[in-house]
Amino acid sequence: MTDLLARAVDATRDFDSTRALDGVSLDVPAGQIVGLLGPNGAGKTTLLSLLLGLRRPTSGRVELFGGDPRDPASRRSLGSTPQETGLPATLRVGEVVDFVSRHYADPMSLGELLDGFGLDGLQRRQTGSLSGGQKRRLAVALAFVGRPRLVILDEPTTGLDVDARRSLWDGVRAFGETGGTVLLTSHYLEEVEALADRVVVIDDGRVVTDDTLDAVRASVDLRRVSLRSPAAPDLPGVVRHSSEHGVHHLYTPDADALVRDLVVSGLEFSGLEVRGASLEEAFLALTGDRAQTAREKAAAR
Amino acid sequence: MNLALTHTRFLFLETVRVPIAVIGTMMFPALSLLFFVIPQGAVADNPVFATAATAQLSLFAVISVCLFTFGVGVSEDRSTPWDPYVRTLPAGVAPRMVGRMLNGTLFSLLGVLPVVLLAALLTAATVSVTDLLVGVLALVAAGLPFLGIGLAMGYSLPVKASVPVAQVVLFPMAFGGGLFLPPQVFPDWLNSISVLLPSRAGRDLVVGVVTGTDVPARAVVVLLIWAVATALLAAWAYRRDEGRRFH
Q1: pLDDT recorded at residue A1
Q2: Using only C-alpha atoms, what is the Rg of chain B?
Q3: Residue A80: enclosing H or E segment and its boundaries?
Q4: Which pLDDT belongs to residue B1?
Q5: Helix B159-176 × helix B129-156 angle, to 10°
Q6: Domains of chain B: which residue ranges?
Q7: Distance (Å) from the C-alpha of residue B245 to the closest C-alpha of chain A?
Q8: ipTM, two decimals
Q9: Does pLDDT of A23 surpass 60?
Q10: What is the pTM of this model?
């Protein structure tokens, strides 16, 4: 049997009259990097707060290393990170790291940690004086202080520039290569594509898709046909259409048929380009369809 | 135990890095003594009255630290993203709570220190070393119900609500408990309400100890009931707290 580090079984969580999570089941086996995707308000953060032991499910069950996440002993091999850049502004970098590391049996040394996250030489600085990127890196570094087996990262690279983001990705990948397990949420689908072995899409408190990265891509195997034309082409087989600066992007399961129709239609066009849709685009098609269905249902009422 | 010290040290550093918070705590009770007690010869020159007035303002310092450090401080902490993060670390409730208590005691005593020093230098207040030490213990005991109220507030209210609530609790409690004007001058109706307040029970305990007069049994009973009730309230508020409600 695979070793499950974190698990939700039919977990539901209500806030007053709002159902934030609705019967979510999720297994996080050792060694996987799982990407959690979903629009804002989909329930990602609520699910993480249950797994971190911050909240109790209204019904159903959550487990961390086989125990209750609310029991401190269950969190010994867990690493997590403060949201946003919520570090105590008046404390020094070294003091914050020292505080966190004292909670663990075999923590990384201050030097090792700061070096690994490009923060060396900053231990005497108050965290309030760090740049946004440095704060973010320190916040993520804190997840790794205790040499965890499972790291839960909620939007780890929000607010980082491209270079900082890439170096953080390298860090997460390296942790994964040494057998570490990661559950991460992100606004950047590119990030999930770059890191995750498996993608879980949550929308409206439910799991919409839970599969390997490739399978999720295949399940919405769309092609993007881009072209420049004065008028928006109206063609059959287009599931989504977007345009920017006079360039139209048409998403379709069958690019060949679309191109044939396009030529036959006699529409004036230039700069034709065909490529596979990214996960972000596929994801929009997934949740967009659900939103569409919901709207139709509402309209029918 | 090590973790409790770690949390204590961390909370201490957070507080002292904003020195105005500490100075504010130390100033108000001392200024009250300076403006309202010292100019009144009838009180300042009478050893018993001066000692009682000093005890009353010391208790006021302790109560205000309890309500502000625990009430408002805990609310503030809960509104930051750092607090939920700390709750994901592998430590239970105890280390953070012990850290808060030790810091609260420390800063309360810091608030009391200038009052006692001013009283010793500028009034006829007098106390033996033993009575002073027992008095400090009595102050800590008298602060317990307010510690409970503070924690209950902190864990159930947002910052915007906890600041006014702390003020609304502090001043009537202080006045009604006889911390500004001694209860001897109260009309009967006020006195009969006053004796049921934790501030009055605490005041009677502390004043009794430092002036060497009898502590009414009623005060001890009232204080005990309030301490237990507010501790239960605080525990209830802590257990139902899950950080901010929204997300």
Answers
A1: 47
A2: 18
A3: strand A78-80
A4: 65
A5: 140
A6: 2-240
A7: 7
A8: 0.80
A9: yes
A10: 0.79
